[in-house]
Amino acid sequence: xxxxxxxxxxxxxxxxxxxxxxxxxxxxxxxxxxxxxxxxxxxxxxxxxxxxxxxxxxxxxxxxxxxxxxxxxxxxxxxxxxxxxxxxxxxxxxxxxxxxxxxxxxxxxxxxxxxxxxxxxxxxxxxxxxxxxxxxxxxxxxxxxxxxxxxxxxxxxxxxxxxxxxxxxxxxxxxxxxxxxxxxxxxxxxxxxxxxxxxxxxxxxxxxxxxxxxxxxxxxxxxxxxxxxxxxxxxxxxxxxxxxxxxxxxxxxxxxxxxxxxxxxxxxxxxxxxxxxxxxxxxxxxxxxxxxxxx
Length: 295
Fold this sequence. Notes:
The chain is of the alpha/beta class. The chain has one domain. Helix content is 41%, strand content 11%.
């Protein structure tokens, strides 16, 4: 995946609070401290911690004194080609450029959403969360939250091959949840059920499909600053990395790795095969109308 070296990055779409501290203990679910496996099985690559009841009542979100490293270091597409954090800024810009233009084409209005870079722990509109939650979208404040250390864990803990586009897939998936929030679909994840046919699984698979739709258009969506696509090259190897990441975070893969057995009735995000299939559906068609996982 390559970016236009001459393109300007819009760092206003990323809040960098890495290194900020929030006082207090770890986020809790149902009164107990939550471990990595529990959180990942319940929320991995999903919507906000409010769905699991994560609370640390009354704590404010971490507020940056500046835009940290991002504002100083992530200025152009050339920076995105050399730095991980700048690459994520560029992906956020590209994803939101696409959805902005797609909503306008359909006669609607897309509301841009910020991504928050944090380390260890962060306060959100959905409650307080730790890095153990993984990347998530919070409908309470319409922001995406991401600890960049997660991408190393995607390889080391979940066996994904990694690569720049694996990171882009994760970001695009979370913005898929933002699209669902704007269109009213996200509420369908809250049907109180788990399992292969639950609303939660269908919402997650649709977000995978929306990530694929963006990937289909990534090299043809004009950047607002230049009128040229921000992403200039996306290879078959990149797409394979994205597909591999989608499979690595399938419920069945995670359950097999961490509990030694697969229990489909507890799924919240879908199997490896389902996640790959729906990402591929979006990528092949480039049409969000073909992402109706509820039919």
